[in-house]
Amino acid sequence: MPRPIQATIHTEALRHNLARARAAAPEARVWAVVKANAYGHGIERAFEGLRGADGFALLDLNEAERVRALGWRGPILLLEGVFEQRDLELCSRLGLWHTVHCDEQIDMLATHKTQVPHRVFLKMNSGMNRLGFTPQRYRAAWTRLNALPQVDEISLMTHFADSDGRRGVAEQMAVFNAVTADLPGERTVANSAATLRHTVGGPLQRPDLAAQVAADWVRPGIVVYGSAPDFPEYTAEQWGLQPAMTLAAKLIGVQELDAGAAVGYGCHFVAERPMRIGVAACGYADGYPRICPTGTPVLVDGVRTQTVGRVSMDMLAVDLTPVPDAGFGSEVTLWGRAANGALMPIDEVARMAGTVGYELMCGLAPRVPVVVD
Ligand SMILES: *Cc1c(COP(=O)(O)O)cnc(C)c1O
C-alpha cells in the first residue's frame, strides 16, 4: 500500500470560485490564470472545473500547448509574452495571444514572418516596476506595434502591486487611464484582489474607478483556487470561496507522552502534562512547510487541533487531546476540506509559515498522489 497521503482537486469548487470571480465583475470576461501548473493543482486536473472561463492565462509555452491539447479552442494569453523569436511561431500555430512588455519583444515581432497576424496585450508598468513600458514610453511602443503588419489587434494591460493592500489601485489606475485615455482596444488590469475588492460592489471600490478596474477582462488566479488574496483582512470563507485543493494524510502512529517528554527532531516541543499525540504521514518532502511551528492548525477526523514539534521530511506530529477517539488510520487534513465537511483554510497554514496560500499550493510535492473529485 502506498503511503497514506493524498491531494484532492475539487472540480465543483473550481467551478464555484470561477463563478464567484465572474459575479464580482459581471460585465467583464474572465481569464482563469493557470500558470505554474494551475497553481500546483495540475492544468489537466483543473481543466474540467475551469472550462467555463472565457480564456486561460499562463506563462509557459509548454503549458499553452497542454491547454490546446485538452481541446481548448478559445483565447489563451501568455502573461509574460514570448522569450525568444521562435516562440512567435508557436503563437501563430496555436493562436496564442501574447503580452508585449519590452522593446525586444517588438523587435522580434517586426522580424517575424507570419501568415496570421498576432493579437498582443501591450503592458504598462504603472508602478509595479516589474514588467512593462513606463507611462512615458507606452505610447511610442503602441505606435510602433500599430505600424507592424504582423500585429492586428492591440489590447491594453497593466498589473497592480498592492490591490490587496493599503495603497489599493487608485494611483496605478490614474496613471494607466491618463496614458491610454484615447487609445482603442480592450483593457485588462485586475488580478484576484482587484476583482474582489475594487470592482463595482467591492468593499474598497472607488465609484469613479470601479468599472474601469473590471474593464474588459479580469485575470483571477488565486481566488479560483479558493484562497483569499488578502488574508487575514478577509478570509476565503468571507469571500464565499471554496478550497479547490485538499491535502490529507492519515495517522500512522500514536504516542502516549508523560509530562516532560519531547517530540521530534531538536526536542522542540516538551509535553507539560501527559498527552496523546498522533504521527501523520505528511512532511516537508510532501510540500508541508518545515517552518510551520508548534501550534499550526490541522484537522484530525475533522476536528481542529494543532501540530507539535518540528515537521520532519515524511511525518509530523499532532496533538490528539481534542480528539480522544482518534488513532491509527484517522484522517488528518493539512489544508482543504475534511470528510465531515470541516475546513482547514490553506491561508491559516500559510500564515504560520510566514507565507501565502499561493506558495503552499504551488509547492505540493510531486510524490503526493493527486485525485480529482
Ligand atoms: C499571476 C497573475 C495574475 C493572477 O494573480 P492572482 O493574484 O493569483 O489573482 C494576474 N495577472 C498577471 C499578470 C499575473 O502574472
Automatic annotation (TrEMBL):
**GO-annotated biological processes:** D-alanine biosynthetic process
* Domain of life per record: Bacteria
Keywords of the record: Isomerase, Pyridoxal phosphate
Residues of the active site? 35 (proton acceptor), 265 (proton acceptor)
The cofactor required is: pyridoxal 5'-phosphate
What residues does substrate bind to? 130, 313
Q: Which InterPro entries match?
A: Ala_racemase, Ala_racemase/Decarboxylase_C, Ala_racemase_C, Ala_racemase_N, Ala_racemase_pyridoxalP-BS, PLP-binding_barrel
* Pfam families in UniProt: Ala_racemase_C, Ala_racemase_N
Q: State what this protein does.
A: Catalyzes the interconversion of L-alanine and D-alanine. May also act on other amino acids.
Family indicated by similarity: Belongs to the alanine racemase family.
Please state what the protein is called: Alanine racemase
What is the species listed in this Swiss-Prot or TrEMBL entry? Rhodoferax koreensis
